[in-house]
Amino acid sequence: MAFSVLSSCQLPQFIYFLLVALTTFSVISTAFGERTLKFVTVLYRHGDRSPVKAYPTDPYQESAWPQGFGQLTQDGMRQHFELGQALKERYHGFLSEAYDRHQIAVRSTDFDRTLMSAEANLAGMYPPNGSQVFNPNLKWQPIPVHTVPQDEDRLLSFPLPNCPRFDSLLNETTHTEGFLNVTRLYKVGTPQPLGSEDFLEMLRNKTGLKDASVETVWSVHDTLFCEAMHHLPPPAWVTPEVMEKLRRLKDFSFQIMFGFYKREEKSRLQGEFKFVKETEWEEEEEEGLGSVGVLLNQILKNITDSTVLDSKKLLKMIVYSAHDTTIVALQSALNVFNGKQPPYASCHIFELFQEDNGSFSVAMHFRNDSTKEPYPLALPGCTQYCPLEDFVRLTKSVIPENWEEECQVPSRIRDTEVIIGLTVCGCLLFLLIGLLLALLCRQQDVKDGYRHVINEGDDNS
Ligand SMILES: *[C@@H]1O[C@H](CO)[C@@H](O)[C@H](O)[C@H]1NC(C)=O
Ligand SMILES: *[C@@H]1O[C@H](CO)[C@@H](O)[C@H](O)[C@H]1NC(C)=O
Ligand SMILES: *[C@@H]1O[C@H](CO)[C@@H](O)[C@H](O)[C@H]1NC(C)=O
Ligand SMILES: *[C@@H]1O[C@H](CO)[C@@H](O)[C@H](O)[C@H]1NC(C)=O
Ligand SMILES: *[C@@H]1O[C@H](CO)[C@@H](O)[C@H](O)[C@H]1NC(C)=O
Ligand SMILES: *[C@@H]1O[C@H](CO)[C@@H](O)[C@H](O)[C@H]1NC(C)=O
């Protein structure tokens, strides 16, 4: 009896053990044996910075910061140096130890803090060794970081012309039940039934910002957060509870900007975040974006290129140095955004692999914590190692085919305006000619009187 019980238990156990062993083996063999890394794209946020602005009553105005507003701090430099070292380690054996200009291309937005972040990052990635040492006292070598002027940047921070459809999407967002729920929670503007404190009214009073709202309040958090990071004692009204509320509102404003409502369409269009930018206090630079679909399209194009031109192509890594909004926009477009503002020097990674059968797959990771391994991010509807074709197919919906058309940029209305304008001009010209002709005729009639007037004029001059 006892024996038969035991054996009937042991058999399934043995099969289970076998299955586990087999799966483990197959996982290991695909991970380390047959899957080879081919190409990497990295998009990171700049490191720790001074605040972009101070609110009117802020005791710490621009002079409180060694380099003024919006600048990378030494903490930020260290964060990126560390990220550079981590990337060097992660891609050890993939990238050559020594810097090779054919292998890596770096592009940054045209801001001091993103350019400097990229430089600090590269210092961590490529300390010179051997023949690359040009000054024995310096563990650093110059490596190019490319950029384009802010108003020409169509990739990482687009000042694309306004997209009316996107503006109306944002307006629609502010009328959704979900948005109004949050708004009610913090009592924005309009009189509300008593019960909860009027958080935003308090904020307006304390900061001197007349127009503090759910959409703009993230800046207050940002300023206070930067000050706290640099051990500047906060004013009395900034309690931990207030900071926590601000933090939640800030994360919420990131969500409504890029997702929350009609995410795919927002990703396709993503014009400027207009209702942030219109307010008096908002800085234009932090950090308006154009269509993230264009960026994603470019990333996928470069990835696909690297599968085709494999033998000739030496390029192994593209690096983008950008902003929290760039990461949020990209991750929202991919539907992998976790709802939290990406921390300083956080890094979204795309890796292209070739499987043992020759096919290609894309894996994504997010390094948002330097003490942890990067988090794997799987595209919804796909596996962690997503076949490239599936990746492209699943992201098609966020890539605009014709941005202008989809934005309903009223080009026909503009045409009509031009036609009306021309017609009016034509009519005016016609009238003028008529008037001149009439005058000429009159001149014939009253020649003397007319001449008299002209002579008078001449005498006076
Ligand atoms: C520098 O290069 C030498 C020889 O090429 C190698 O032995 C050494 O480990 C390298 N040092 C570093 C820090 O990479
Ligand atoms: C926003 O939407 C509301 C209702 O959907 C509409 O009444 C309002 O005019 C819109 N505002 C703008 C600026 O488009
Ligand atoms: C709004 O809040 C109410 C009550 O708190 C809740 O029942 C409802 O589900 C919320 N709606 C949305 C869209 O979040
Ligand atoms: C805040 O409210 C108090 C009391 O109502 C008022 O005296 C003060 O001027 C207000 N501050 C600002 C910046 O509006
Ligand atoms: C990525 O692709 C774009 C568009 O095809 C191309 O212009 C660009 O040079 C590529 N980037 C690199 C670093 O090769
Ligand atoms: C980092 O990202 C992961 C995955 O999205 C998320 O679970 C985690 O909370 C994030 N951590 C921080 C510090 O943002």
UniProtKB/TrEMBL annotation:
Cellular component, GO annotation: lysosomal lumen; lysosomal membrane
Membrane-spanning parts: 418-441
EC number(s) stated in the UniProt entry for this protein: 3.1.3.2
GO molecular function: acid phosphatase activity
Record keywords, A-Z: Disulfide bond, Glycoprotein, Hydrolase, Lysosome, Membrane, Signal, Transmembrane, Transmembrane helix
Topology versus the membrane: Single-pass membrane protein
Cellular localization per UniProt: Lysosome lumen; Lysosome membrane
Catalytic activity: a phosphate monoester + H2O = an alcohol + phosphate
Family membership: Belongs to the histidine acid phosphatase family.
Name the record gives this protein: Lysosomal acid phosphatase
